[in-house]
Amino acid sequence: AAPPVITIDGPTASGKGTIAHRVAQALGWSVLDSGALYRLTALAVQQNGTNPDDEMAVARVAQELDVAFQGEQVLLEGRDVAALIRQEQVGNLASRVAAYGPVRQALLERQRAFRMAPGLVADGRDMGTVVFPDAPLKIFLVADVRARAERRSKQLKEKGFSANLADLLESMRARDERDRTRANAPLVAAADARTVDSSSLTIDETVRVVLDLWSSLG
Ligand code: C5P
């Protein structure tokens, strides 16, 4: 049988990445930050001057991405861009190019290749609906928009970027709206997903909820 996958999907800054890492750590599994692949595509498009409106050109960039994940490092053509891809502007361009079907197609197999024994925790928007539809546990992680903006602002400041809360709120709303309403793999809970609201939970508590759901599957 294919190794198990726990999928964690949800809107921007709902804490998916942190929770995915912590759950993976607790289980000794690998982790896939699928948003990083869309962010890397956006960064590569920006850096090599590709026209972001040209779907096929952007899809070629996605297809040919030279990336490696090494611990905390995210290498694009050998250079660590882990901090760079966290910028809100890169996230916004990622959300634009992620609406293109050919771009999603170009990244599909690359994402599935992360599935290996003993298991994978994958976070994104369509992990449970499109990339790993057979995952035995699917989480849809939500949090109210203010809690998410505050988390994102803190995260950006830690990486040395400035962040204005009102601008962030506006940018996150626009990005979520685009992710929810696009035709290709929109942000939506899988029919068999469990919704977890982390607004009033700590990171530890949220991790515990996911691990308990996993154990309860036996
Ligand atoms: O999760 P993160 O904010 O890093 O994702 C950046 C953007 O990439 C999202 O706004 C979304 O448009 C896109 N994305 C996606 N499918 C995924 C992960 C991310 O479309 N599985």
UniProtKB/TrEMBL annotation:
Where in the full protein does the shown chain start and end, and how long is the full protein? 458 to 675 of 680
Job of this protein: Catalyzes the transfer of the enolpyruvyl moiety of phosphoenolpyruvate (PEP) to the 5-hydroxyl of shikimate-3-phosphate (S3P) to produce enolpyruvyl shikimate-3-phosphate and inorganic phosphate.
Task: Name the protein family.
Answer: Belongs to the EPSP synthase family.
Binding partners and assembly: Monomer.
Q: What is this protein called?
A: Multifunctional fusion protein
Q: Where along the sequence do coiled-coil regions lie?
A: none
Tell me the organism's taxonomic lineage: Bacteria, Pseudomonadati, Pseudomonadota, Betaproteobacteria, Burkholderiales
> Where along this sequence does the record place binding of ATP?
G10, P11, T12, A13, S14, G15, K16, G17, T18
Where does the protein end up?
A: Cytoplasm
Segments forming domain Cytidylate kinase: 6-213
